[in-house]
Amino acid sequence: MASSAITLILLSLSCFILLTRPSASQKTTIVQGEQLKGELSANNSLFTLRFQETAIPERDLRSYLAIYYTYESSYPVWVANRDAPVLGTSGILTIDGNGSLKILHDGGEPIFLYKVQRPSNTSATLEDSGNFVLHQVNPDGSKQVLWQSFDYPTDTLLPGMKLGINLGTRHKWFLTSRRSSVSPASGSFTFGVDPNVTNQLVIRWLGDVFWTSGPWQRGRFNLLNDSSLNEIYKFNYFSNENETYFNYSVNTAISIFPMLRINSDGDLVGFRVNGYNQEVSCSFPYAGRMIPVDGCVQQKLPECRSPEDISKFTPHDGYMSYNGFVEYSATENLTLQDCRAKCLNSCSCAAYASKYNDDTGCEIWSTTAGFRRTSSDGQRQIYFIGKGKFILVKFIFTKETFVLMQNKWWLWLTIAVGGVAIIPPVFSFCYVLWTKLKELKEKGETRIDQKTLLNELGGNATERQEEGESELHVFSFEIIATATNYFSAANKLGKGGFGPVYKGRLTDGKEIAVKRLSTNSGQGLVEFKNEAILIAKLQHTNLVRLLGFCIQGQEKILVYEYMPNKSLDFYIFVSSRKSILDWKKRFNIIEGIAQGLLYLHKYSRLRVIHRDLKASNILLDDEMNPKISDFGMARIFGLKESEANTNRIVGTYGYMSPEYAMNGIVSIKIDVFSFGVLLLEIVSGKKNNGSYHHEHQLNLIGYAWQIWNEGCGLDLLDPILKEFCPQNVLRCIHVGLLCVQYHATDRPTMSDVVSMLSNETMQLPEPKQPAFFINAVAEEPDIPDSQSDNCSINQVSISVMVAR
Ligand SMILES: *[C@@H]1O[C@H](CO)[C@@H](O)[C@H](O)[C@H]1NC(C)=O
Ligand SMILES: *[C@@H]1O[C@H](CO)[C@@H](O)[C@H](O)[C@H]1NC(C)=O
Ligand SMILES: *[C@@H]1O[C@H](CO)[C@@H](O)[C@H](O)[C@H]1NC(C)=O
Ligand SMILES: *[C@@H]1O[C@H](CO)[C@@H](O)[C@H](O)[C@H]1NC(C)=O
Ligand SMILES: *[C@@H]1O[C@H](CO)[C@@H](O)[C@H](O)[C@H]1NC(C)=O
Ligand SMILES: *[C@@H]1O[C@H](CO)[C@@H](O)[C@H](O)[C@H]1NC(C)=O
Ligand SMILES: *[C@@H]1O[C@H](CO)[C@@H](O)[C@H](O)[C@H]1NC(C)=O
Ligand SMILES: *[C@@H]1O[C@H](CO)[C@@H](O)[C@H](O)[C@H]1NC(C)=O
């Protein structure tokens, strides 16, 4: 459902003027008697107000008057008529002769947003904050607020909005979730203050408490330790005789406009450092984890159900017949989450599904016998209370295409369940199998064992031998424990994607790096497996090499070649070590990383997207050659596939491209983006997520883009570097800026990048607008000297060095 609309730059007004020079002034206001044609746009171009159609298959075309954040065009921050959509495209926003703000449409009576008591002169303005405000304009020219969209939030909280109660008017400020990700109609979750304990936030589900923040005490929410709602979103509680409310600001580097949103499953989602983040989730599985956050209220279940049943629902694509079927009326306004609750609460329910393509409406079945899987259009996802889960685990871990299988395992489940339904004897057999496997699971036995992994890697190892490459070893736990001095703290090198990394020395003197999977990490197992399978198949001088692995009992360990010079971030960001990497070495590192990535994207047999390229994942060998490491999050990509969506967005703040952070769109261009960031970091010796402009709090990309446009590109270069070839440096910055362009299609591929870097005469296209961000409120800006009118290049002497 995530549409292709891609987007998210945070530009402040000043920055916008500074960097993109808007053409004409925007239309921000509509006045009395005027009918809105087109859209209103805030002066800072961050928000627009317009009618937007939603085309839902098999349903009438509807439109909503909505405010959109410019860089997220598929999901409005505010909707005027969420429960009263206008048919077709007939909607017109107007201020009538009396001064009332209303929507005219073909379908009947106008929809009033605000009805004036007596005729007044009014005008309505979309402000830079995203607030749409109706003012009364007095004869003396003064203005008075009559109505504002911030008082009637939809599902998105913007800075400046309130959550609370106006004690005079009893007006409450709270969010109401959407019906589904497609339908903006009111859903079943609300987020606001607790009327009894007004210094506490609550999420309610159909009126019942679903989550509470705990009371606000000493500047934090009591129940939330280490929560981003305490740490990132700086809430502020205000209370006097007239009103009591929370509002928030943000004081960390924010990559996306800092919004908070309650989604249709009742999760609180923040748009912040990593793009899209689950701040609070009480809906299973809790933001991908098995444990709910503090404050979640245990949902009541009938005696026939156990809490585990919640997790057993699995989706299948297909049709259901009308056996044992109950449909809930559309007027109940049920969401998919509500539908699941209906099914759980009805002891005979075996399956549920939403009725319409927009995930609204609800149907439940007492039997799954009428299910037919189909691949034709018009099918829908039907959630079965799953029984084949454990059979699947086997499939997942024994198929070599494990990563890809993850997406298709339900297919096998469907076949399994279908078979079960048809042949009762098979059923009993499966039952025995199921209990066996369940027992195994209960014993804590994971389905990934040495033999399985060996089988998967084994064929490969032989293959590699034929190619004359070294073989993969299986190490015993004892050897590794001895080599690392029993995983002593002194041997610890750092923390990798899924566990700590230790230095070790084998008895023959060979040094190794050992990555040990943390035993209690469920997610880590997947990443371990992913990394083991992937990296065993990859061979390139710029990729770190896997020597072997060890799986014994609970222990899962990967063994790599040891990199004596640590990782890139150890040098480029630390002033005392920066000089170790002169320009020549830095350029060599840039080229090496580009080669490694090119191999991953194009020449490896698998076509791999790394997804977490960053300075700390670039290891350096004894000659300071770069080696890309940490493939725990990498993704194998079909050769025909060019783009895919993922629900699990992983990666690191500052290195994620906008389309990935916002919409989970995965393509090789997300690595290109990260490479661009890394390149600019290597050239400048600065971290992307710092602030590098005294007024605008630009991050490194924004800063680079600004000084590039001012023609002062060399100012970006790490001042510690004294010997370099200016053309060569400028070329690197140019390539870096091409890689971080906002639109993925504008970014070059890695093979383009490699030729751009190596071919000094090649004409490069002009970089377009990059995706960069401004820190909303930075407390301690780290400001380099910034002279806007003359570049520092004139003041330093450059000793020209022949490139390479
Ligand atoms: C203005 O208000 C008067 C009295 O409430 C009403 O009769 C009239 O129809 C209104 N005019 C418009 C344009 O809505
Ligand atoms: C409303 O006020 C504005 C500004 O004072 C004025 O220009 C306009 O003519 C007034 N409109 C009406 C209908 O009185
Ligand atoms: C938008 O900019 C115009 C021109 O600078 C100005 O007249 C107007 O007041 C601004 N509007 C808002 C809402 O800031
Ligand atoms: C939050 O409310 C306080 C108290 O009214 C106010 O001073 C502050 O400016 C508000 N913050 C934001 C971001 O609107
Ligand atoms: C608030 O307190 C009253 C009285 O104790 C109680 O009846 C009501 O359910 C409470 N409301 C909420 C939302 O907790
Ligand atoms: C939160 O942290 C405080 C102090 O570190 C501790 O006393 C308290 O038990 C923690 N609360 C929860 C719910 O973890
Ligand atoms: C509360 O509202 C009343 C009426 O609007 C106003 O006179 C009073 O000053 C307000 N009190 C505070 C503390 O703002
Ligand atoms: C469903 O939503 C409509 C408005 O869209 C509302 O009138 C109706 O009362 C809602 N039904 C329930 C059961 O909440």
CATH architecture of the largest domain: Orthogonal Bundle
The name of the CATH superfamily of the largest domain reads Transferase(Phosphotransferase) domain 1
Number of helices: 17
Largest sheet data: 6 strands, antiparallel
CATH class of the largest domain: Mainly Alpha
List cofactors, ions and other ligands.
2-acetamido-2-deoxy-beta-D-glucopyranose
The portion of residues assigned to helices is 10-25%
Radius of gyration: 29 Å
Biggest sheet: strands side by side, in what order? 28-30-29-32-27-31
Based on CA inertia axes, which overall geometry fits?
A: globular
- The low-pLDDT segments are 1-23, 252-256, 387-409, 439-448, 458-470, 775-790, 792-804
Q: How many distinct folded domains? A: 4
Would you give an account of this structure?
The chain has 804 residues and is an alpha+beta fold. The protein has 4 domains: 127 residues, Agglutinin, subunit A (Orthogonal Prism); 83 residues, Hepatocyte Growth Factor, CATH 3.50.4; 170 residues, Phosphorylase Kinase, domain 1, CATH 3.30.200; 222 residues, Transferase(Phosphotransferase) domain 1 (Transferase(Phosphotransferase), domain 1, Orthogonal Bundle), CATH 1.10.510.10. It is built from 17 helices and 46 strands. A 6-stranded antiparallel β-sheet has the order 28-30-29-32-27-31. A 6-stranded mixed β-sheet has the order 33-37-38-36-35-34, sandwiched between helices. Strands 2, 3, 4, 5 and 6 form a 5-stranded antiparallel β-sheet that branches. Helix 4 crosses helix 6. The radius of gyration is 29 Å and the shape is globular. The two termini are 49 Å apart. The N terminus and C terminus are likely disordered. The structure holds 2-acetamido-2-deoxy-beta-D-glucopyranose (8 copies).
